Amino acid sequence: MKKIAGANKAVKAIRSEYLVTSGVEGVYIEHYTLGLDNVYVVFNDGKNYVCHVRGMNTVEILTRSNYPYGTGEEKTKLYESMASRIKEHGLPIAPVFVIGS
Asked: What is the dihedral angle through the alpha carbons of 2, 16, 38, 62, rounded to the nearest 10 degrees?
């Protein structure tokens, strides 16, 4: 999958689902497996999201509250660990390349 297209797909899904209007501060994308990229998006208002982008059709948006693994504090730690890993090891996409940034 093209990295910029994956980043744009994630940002568009977040804006649609969570009605985010803030500008994009940073986007990081990490290739995970064939047909799956993990995308970490940080908005200027401080909100951040992790997305699983599968091909060009499906985006799963993850937040601290809906992260599918763990419970309570463990859920938050697992989410933040994944977000940190994507930011550290992922490919940064300049906001200028992100639609609606």
From this structure: -170
Confidence of residue 43 (pLDDT cuts 50, 70, 90): very high
CA distance 101 to 92: 14
Q: Which of 45, 39, 40 is nearest to 23 (CA)?
A: 45
CA gap 22, 34 in Å, rounded: 31
For the segment 91-101, what is each residue's pLDDT rounded down to a tens digit? Answer: 998 876 676 65
Taking CA atoms, 98 is separated from 23, 38, 66, 74, 95, in Å, by 10, 16, 25, 32, 5
Helix residue ranges per DSSP H, the chain: 3-18, 72-89
The radius of gyration of the chain from alpha carbons, rounded to an integer in Å, stands at 12
Is pTM, for the whole model, over 0.85? yes
